[in-house]
Amino acid sequence: MINLLLFSDKRRDFLLLLKDGPKNIDVIVDELKVPRNSLLPQIKKLKEKGLIVRDGDDCRLTILGNIIVRKLQPLVDAALVLDIDEYFWVSRKLDTLPSCFLGRVGELKGCCLVEPEPEHVFDLIPEIVSAFREPSRAMMLFSYFHPLLPSFFLNVAKKGIEFPLILNRGVFERFLTDFRDEGEEILKHENVNVFVLEDNALEVPSVVAISESTLILGLLNKWERADRQYVVSCKPCAVKWGEELFSFYKERARKVTSLEEPGLCDPIPPESAQK
């Protein structure tokens, strides 16, 4: 069965086309852009395995076929996502994603890998600046610090949109020590809710940024460094995946309403701040 499903793109794509209901062979041939004669032997094999039923030129999935296709689609989606750049995924510290979200990585389908051009290597992530230039909503998580982040957060806050912001303790410490004025100004905006992740054992991506139509995801590399490569997707399923990931961390974070709260100025171990 595995050989039947995975060793032929024609058979796999044919089955996936039937997941929404019966289709005529001529319609399938047109969508797959393959000769009819090359598709007929594949249809015969799928029929012999009990995965499809053929009625004249119409084909539909059997109950068994429906079960298989429901499992096959996520596998194909995941393979397409991981195929955008093999080295990128191999070099990532993937345990910074909770296993329940890593298992749904196929929902990032349609994503691309971006990194800034050499002339922008020291700038804030251009894709984030662009996505949040005129947003109707914003959600952001950062576990690494960039000196332009305080002014960027403040600019987003001034737009008046609901803006939940999650920082790990190390990044927040930079606001307390080096950018306190900007931090206090950000907290004055009623539309902004700042949360701090204080659990040093909790693995966190370097960036999760979500606008109404874009997800930007940054993952630490194997050396636990935040480099300049990011996954970007504008697909609704990817944005929803990002929203749920953001909520996962928000539920585990402490809301901050003032920089004068007890405990905020307590020292933290140096290893808690991700590079």
Written description of the protein model:
Helix 9 packs parallel to helix 11. The radius of gyration is 24 Å and the shape is elongated. The strands form 2 sheets. It has an 8-stranded mixed beta sheet with strand order 4-10-9-8-5-6-7-11, sandwiched between helices. Strands 1-3-2 form a 3-stranded antiparallel beta sheet. It is 41% helix and 16% strand. The C terminus is likely disordered. Strand 2 and strand 3 form a beta hairpin. The protein is an alpha+beta fold and 275 residues long. The protein has 12 helices and 11 strands.
Structure keywords:
alpha+beta; 11 strands; three-stranded antiparallel β-sheet; 12 helices; single chain; disordered C terminus; 275 residues
